[in-house]
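hey so u asked for the seq, here:
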Amino acid sequence: MSLLVARNDGEHYGELVLYQLPKSKITYGPMQIEAQIDQNTEISKEFSLWNSSGSTYTRGNMFVIPIEDSLIYVEPVYIEASNSAIPEVKRVIVAYNDKIAYEPTLAEALASLFGKSDNQQQGPGVTPGTTDEPHELTQAELINLANEAFDNAQAAMQNGNWAKYGEYLTQLETYLNMLAQ
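ran it, structure tokens below
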């Protein structure tokens, strides 16, 4: 399986990047992940409940992010009350390998998927608002940084700022790679 993406950031705009995944490992594609989400009883039960209560749910664009020799999928779920025209992110679905997490925020979904320990992660990082001295980021810090990058990417997409959207997705990919280690 391979993933071909076009970059949309600054001077790299239009460049193609090919991610080749190992043939020896099963990697699910977006349609297979969507089917797994549809078959998840917890998720489908909640979607049915929302539809019957006068609200409307919408599954947002699925983010496909390369992590090491696999892919992680992130999909926001929006709910819109019948008396409101503004949808809000109600849940975030994260799928990685054979696991699916379905939580109110990306941070909680990542914690559910990768565990909640504060063990030190490999790779130096910089805590926002501090000096540039690198330190080992904890898992909780990585989850918070990934959540922030995801929120920023969503906001950039809504504003049509595709260069920033690409930058935030790159940040998200970096943090998720560090989490997967």
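The longest strand covers residues 70-80. The beta strands are 2-6, 16-20, 56-59, 63-67, 70-80, 88-96, 99-103, 120-125, 135-138.
lmk if thats what u needed
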